Automatic annotation (TrEMBL):
It comes from Drosophila yakuba (Fruit fly). InterPro entries: PBP/GOBP (IPR006170), PBP_GOBP_sf (IPR036728). GO terms for molecular function: odorant binding. This is Odorant-binding protein 83ef. Gene3D superfamilies: Pheromone/general odorant binding protein domain. Pfam families: PBP_GOBP. One of its GO terms (biological process) is sensory perception of smell. It is found in: Secreted. Keywords: Disulfide bond, Secreted, Signal.
């Protein structure tokens, strides 16, 4: 019979739901657990790992950095994410969802890797939903792909009228009173460009007052105005359309 440590690892790899969330690769997870744990702590470490989905911070220091390193996604010595490799393995949609988090440098490489990997796993759940919802809305509005591509730059006038309203309604960005459901915005778009570990981005000025909303041309108009504010807070600058200026 194997050592208690080997038995515990084997049982965990067979039974734990956290495995798929962490790496999808039993050998990679086992290698990192052997590297970071010890015979004396393995039982307690596995119990911590089973609570992975509810972690508020990394309870097994540097585990995520090890997993990302083994995937070829994180350069430990340079303390940076291998962005091209991440994009090749997970797709452009997943990378774009986490682009700010993966480029947000941190002196603590383990925390940097933990935040990045958590974001990538979240992106695998939400980025595809956001894209499919956006495409569904564009079809409902009979929009062309050329028109949809205009959203790659922030325009003062919405390229496809009411596209954002359709998207926002489908994603549940607002409650019945018109208040923001901020977590739904974050799930749809990913971490912001200005957010750090200590302070979240301030979107308080983005929600228009009731009077401002009433003065807008229509609901689509004020929703798009609020979306533009969201983008500006995240560091995306407004691009003027030359055709509008001429």
């Amino acid at each position: 019979m194997g050592s208690p440590r080997t038995v515990l690892v084997s049982l965990f790899l067979i039974c734990s739901q956290a495995l798929a969330d962490l790496s999808g690769d039993a050998q990679t997870l086992e290698k990192c657990m052997r590297e970071l744990s010890s015979p004396e702590t393995i039982a307690a470490d596995l119990r911590k790992l089973e609570r992975y989905s509810s972690w508020r911070q990394e309870e097994l220091p540097c585990l995520m950095r090890c997993l990302a390193r083994e995937k070829g996604w994180f350069d430990v010595e340079a303390n940076k994410w291998m962005l091209k490799k991440v994009t090749e393995d997970l797709g452009a949609d997943v990378y774009n969802y986490c682009r700010f988090e993966l480029r947000r440098m941190g002196t603590d490489g383990c925390s940097f890797a933990y935040r990045g990997l958590r974001c990538l796993k979240q992106a695998e759940m939400h980025a595809g939903t956001s894209l499919s919802t956006l495409l569904q809305c564009s079809r409902q509005l009979n929009a062309t792909n050329v028109e949809l591509l205009q959203y790659s730059k922030l325009k003062s006038k919405e390229p496809i009228p009411c596209l954002f309203q359709c998207f926002a309604d489908a994603m549940g960005f607002y409650d019945r009173e018109g208040n923001w459901r901020l977590e739904n915005w974050k799930q749809a778009f990913g971490p912001s460009g200005n957010e750090d570990e200590s302070f979240g981005s301030d979107y308080s000025g983005c929600r228009l007052s009731g009077t401002q909303r009433q003065k807008a041309a229509n609901k689509c108009s004020w929703m798009y105005q609020e979306y533009k504010c969201w983008e500006r807070v995240n560091g995306n600058k407004l691009v003027e359309d030359n055709r509008e200026q001429s």
